[in-house]
Amino acid sequence: MAWPFISSMNPARDVLALSTTEADIKSVPVGGAVTLVWRGKPVFVRHRTAAEIESAVNVDLAELRDPQPDSARHKAGKAEWLVVIGVCTHLGCVPLGQKPTDPRGDFGGWFCPCHGSHYDTAGRIRKGPAPANLALPTYAFTTDTQLKIG
Amino acid sequence: MSIGLHNSAFKNPVIRWVDSRLPIFSMMQNEYGSFPTPKNFNYFWNFGALAMINLMIMIATGIFLAMHYTPHVTMAFDSVERIMRDVNYGWLFRYVHANGASMFFIVVYIHIWRGMYYGSYKAPRELLWMIGVVIFLLMMATAFMGYVLPWGQMSFWGATVITNLFSAFPVVGDSIVTLLWGGFSVDNPTLNRFFSLHYLLPFVIFGVVFLHVAALHITGSNNPLGIDPKGPQDTVPFHPYYTAKDSVGMVVYFIVFASLVFFAPNLLGDPANYIPANPLVTPTHIVPEWYFLPYYAILRAVPDKLGGVLLMFGSILVWFILPWLDTSPVRSMRFRPIAKWFLLLWGIAFGTLMYCGGKPPEGIYVVLSRVATLYYFAWFLVILPVLGRLERPLPLPESIAKPVLRGGGPLPAGAMTKPMEKA
Ligand code: HEM
Ligand code: FES
Is A2 among the domain residues? Predict the structure, then answer.
């Protein structure tokens, strides 16, 4: 009896239907970033530099709160493109670090100003109250630089 | 109750006709006219009536705001600006409504403090107290959802952070949050349901307030001495004595309220809420409205997500069991020489949390929040239960009338009760 009422509050079909986003990321320079919108949320696309990739690879997994190697954070052969959902896993703020002028926290990735979470260059949580790494959206490269999210 | 017409005491034939069939006039007369009330109330006892008035003001201004407000993400912000600029007296309604929420919390916080200081939560008023806590929770939900409606930056990010609190619960957390949002982020479905609930909840509050008052009229009011009235010499009829005293409080209340509305309407608000909501940019300092700051400070004092959320909810839920945590049989803190100071310190801890909640979560503020949080809970869970057994209370007066009549000689002829019976 209560179910129809509860169920009606869940996402409606049109909301579910609007759930893919495509973008061409050719113009993002190395070291640059672009923010896309998917399901009303920001998606961070970062064109990582060789140094950023290296610092992400050379991390002792035992040090991590939510241990994941860098290779599990990007598509195979696409280490330079990091694609993560730009929503802090603490309470949902949008971390800073997309603009060159933004603070990027102690680990060169993103910094969430709300309650002070620091993410590294693979979007992994390193310091602060957030419990998990920045989530990965389902996405694919339809061409070399054409990104389809959802 | 027996079946048949009520035997009405009213003389006016029309009132009598109605009252015999539906004795609401008798009820009003019994509950607010002749209702026997302890005669030693101080001004702390004004705040229940003030809260009632405040609720009516919120409902009245809210209904008229709703006639001009548009609950849609593309139009909500502009419709509130239109209320401010173009709708006749729209600015007045909005400022009264926004500051009315602050006044409501000021009044209710004082009302709750009164209950804690004078032990109004103790037997036989436990249920009355618990109903009060329910009202407070409903008020918090209402005010939170109301703050989302103007769809400014603080509206949006406040809604995001608060709804995300539920994601802390293991397994079901994320599904709960999606259910609350009706989507994958705070968005139009969220705004729509918040408007619907923001309209509904005040009327639910109204119903629960009715239960609160009904329970009050079974047990009768507590009083600053915390002892029970022993007879008519200890009480006065509610009207005209407390209707008059409440009116004095009301004048002061309206002076404060009007000063806020007309001279500092945005003092308690956050300027960031005059920036339209932007889902892609979080403002650097997200702070809730002032009345939520203590709980926000508790949330941030705990370095663990789930722990912070549990402690935050626990900080209010613990009020429900307060009647059983306090083991002292003495109600009023006037007669509890030690507990009184610990309670005062609890008040300071609460104030400290309110202060820290508005500051960035770093350095000294984190330390202060942690100490204050610790004491907040220690007072309820350790000090109150233990102190009630150890403390030696001061001797209680024999009756409410006795200290007033100095030395308690025989009642002077006609004092106190007699002249009033004529009125
Ligand atoms: C317990 C009583 C209530 C409380 C505590 C409350 C609280 C609030 C708060 C804090 C706001 C945000 C004000 C701002 O910053 O602009 C608000 C807005 C609003 N409320 Fe209420 N409210 C109450 C009752 C009602 C009722 C009964 C209605 C309508 C039937 C209503 C309709 C509205 C509308 C339309 C807005 C949006 C316009 C605006 O932002 O000024 N409210 N409310
Ligand atoms: S939301 Fe990012 S640290 Fe709390």
Answer: no
- Domain membership flag for residue A132: yes
Query: Is residue A16 a part of any domain in this protein?
Result: no
Here the tokens at position B237 are 């009829």
Q: What is the pLDDT of residues B315-363, one digit of tens each?
A: 999 999 999 999 999 999 999 999 999 999 999 999 999 999 999 877 8
Please choose from B67, B103, B194, B198 the residue to mutate so as to test ligand 1's pocket, defined by most ligand atoms within 8 A of CB: B198
What is the phi/psi pair of residue B346, to 5°? Answer: -65, -40
Where does residue B320 rank: exposed (0-12), middle (13-18), buried (19+ CB within 10 A)? Answer: middle
Best of B176, B185, B284 to substitute, by most chain A Cβ atoms within 10 angstroms, is B185
Contact yes or no for B178 and A6 at CB 8 A = no
Q: What is the pLDDT of residues B29-60, one digit of tens each?
A: 888 888 899 999 999 999 999 999 999 999 99
Domain residue limits at A39: 30-149
Give chain A's domain count.
Answer: 1
Q: What is the pTM of this model?
A: 0.89
Q: What CATH number does the domain containing A48 carry?
A: 2.102.10.10
Q: Are A20 and A37 in contact (CB under 8 A)?
A: no
Q: Please give the ipTM for the structure prediction.
A: 0.83
Residues of chain B with pLDDT under 50: 408-423
